[in-house]
Every structure is written in structure tokens, then in C-alpha cells.
Amino acid sequence: MNIANKFTTLRVILIPFFVISLIILKTDSYIPAIIFTISAITDFIDGQLARRKNLVTTFGKFMDPLADKMLSCSALIVLIQLSKVPAWTVVIVVLRELTISGFRILAASNGTTLAASIWGKAKTMTQFIAIVLILFNIRSLIGFPIDMIFYYVSIVLTVISLIDYIYKNIKVLDLENI
């Protein structure tokens, strides 16, 4: 397993520690925020390593986006429980992730890999930033809802990236042979 894939695997391993710490400590402690931040940083590191050192693998193409989805959805679901984000927004995120995963599975069954778009990358980045800001209780520190501004921007980008993804990859559905 190369170093980029080890960072992806680390992200997945950290998810239960993050979720348990957030459920127990809520946002009253920085521990869940630190674990999430480390996990989010591994996403940036594994991508940089894979591209710069030519360490792109089939495992990485599959696991990296899946690890992102697992991390963000886990965080958002617990944040619903803690009344930090509205459930309807998380439904949008989860439905987008399931739809994209379905497209990727269909494409893979035909031997095609679907690349992430700039919209998807922007969605992930703003989502991770929003979650970090929420976890660090940044609003109570600065008195301005920058966390929710980032969060709602991420929701808008979630919808835009879904529309863009479907538009660019509609051929995967093979609608002519339904």
C-alpha cells in the first residue's frame, strides 16, 4: 500500500474515533474538532501525494471519494443529533452522495472512471471548512455565523455539483436502452 493510500485509510480509521468523541463530548470539547480536522487534512495530503508522486491507484480512485463521503456524512448526521445543522440539508448531501456513487458504480461496470469536477472539489472543501468551523464553535468565539455561511454555501455547491455531474455523465445511464 503506497503512502497516499495509507492517508486515505487513516481517514477511514479516524471516523469512528471522531463520531464517538463528538457524541460523547459534543462541541464542548476541541477533541472531535481536532480529529475531524486531521481527517480532512489527510484528504488534501493523499491527493497531493498521489498526483505529485504518480501514486494514483485503483484503490485510491475508489477509496478516496468514499472516505470523504463517509467522513462528511458521519459528521453531518451527528451534527443533526446535536441540533447544529438542519436535517433537510443533510438529506440533500446524502442524496447527492448516493446519486454520484450510483453513477460511479454504473460507469465502473462499463470500465469507465468518472473524475471529480471542480464543483465537487469546491463542495468538499467548503463542506469540510464548514464542519470544522461548527465543531470549533467559531460562531460563539467571533459572534458572527461564518460557520453557517460556509455550510449553506456548501449546500448550494452540493446541488450545483450534482447537476454538473449528471449533465456531464448522463451517458452512463444509457437512457436509450431502458
Write the H/E string, N to C.
Answer: HHHHHHH
Quick one: overall form? globular
Number of helices: 7
Number of strands: 0
Gyration radius, in Å = 17 Å
Most strands sheet: none
Known CATH architecture = Up-down Bundle
CATH class: Mainly Alpha
Mean pLDDT figure: 93
Which percent range fits the helix content?
A: over 70%
Spatial gap, N to C terminus: 40 Å
Number of domains: 1
At CATH level 3, the topology is Four Helix Bundle (Hemerythrin (Met), subunit A)
Query: Beta-strand percentage?
Result: under 5%
Report the uncertain regions. none
CATH superfamily: CDP-alcohol phosphotransferase transmembrane (TM) domain
Which structural class best describes the helix and strand composition? mainly alpha
Q: What does the model show?
A:
The protein is mainly α and 178 residues long. The protein has a single domain, classed as CDP-alcohol phosphotransferase transmembrane (TM) domain (Four Helix Bundle (Hemerythrin (Met), subunit A)), CATH 1.20.120.1760. It is built from 7 helices and no strands. It has helices at 3-25, 31-52, 58-81, 87-109, 118-135, 138-142, 146-169. The termini are far apart. The model has no long low-confidence stretch (mean pLDDT 93).
